[in-house]
# Entry
Amino acid sequence: MRTDEAESSSNYFLGHEDRELQRLILQARMYAPLTEAVLRGAGLAAGMRVLDVGCGVGDVALLCADIVGPTGEVVGVDREARALTWARRRAELLGLSHVHFVETSLEALPVARPFDAVVGRLVLMYQPDPVAFVRRMVKHLRPGGVLALHELELAATGLTHPELPLFHRLWGWMLPTCERVGIHVHMGMELVPTLRQAGLAVEDGVVNGRLGTTPDADPTEALVETVRSLVPHMERLGVATAAEVDIDTLAARLTAELRASGSILVPSLMVGVWGHRPGAT
# Structure
């Protein structure tokens, strides 16, 4: 789920059906401790007003809500109504009245009341012009306010030890598929220059990831569900056929390989960077 008028030409191509939204929740559960560390490192604290750009089903907004507490406020924006329905339901179930979700583009969101912090996870990698997108995010940030972004470094993903032949075969299909649909596979490592080009003073950043330490861990399930979403595009681009992937048996085959080898899997590597908008606070 991505926001902004540029989304009509963005590269988010996995849709917003229930299974994809459920995959995003699973993925978010895996990334939650990593993203929370980025948000706290960036200085999010109680009482702050935070804008979550491309909020989707609400996971990052909910993390922010926990950090800023009831004296703060979190606004999540996205253009996908179905995803926002899920986000509102989740916030309601948690009793979080200080979280609000708005169906809008970033471009159409009023700038009248700037935020203390603007955040986004897995947003820039789908944008045709990440620098321009960050500049639009900065318009909603008060002088001295913080921008915090968390993005995948896809080109450095796919670590296992000992080696897993099936996993490396999968990654050999996934990475070129992502590249050929226009995803920025180096977005994680490009965050620092992107923020600087957009006029921000970069403060710090981290590289982090989750380990798949057991065959049935979240990273393994998240990997299989991501492959499932990519299969139609692999076929369309001639990267791999559905028969080659055999998605219905993939989880069992990957689990068996993990059990037999005792390997540790790092299915994704992420980079978090934060900086502030120059000017008096």
Notes: The longest helix spans residues 18-41.
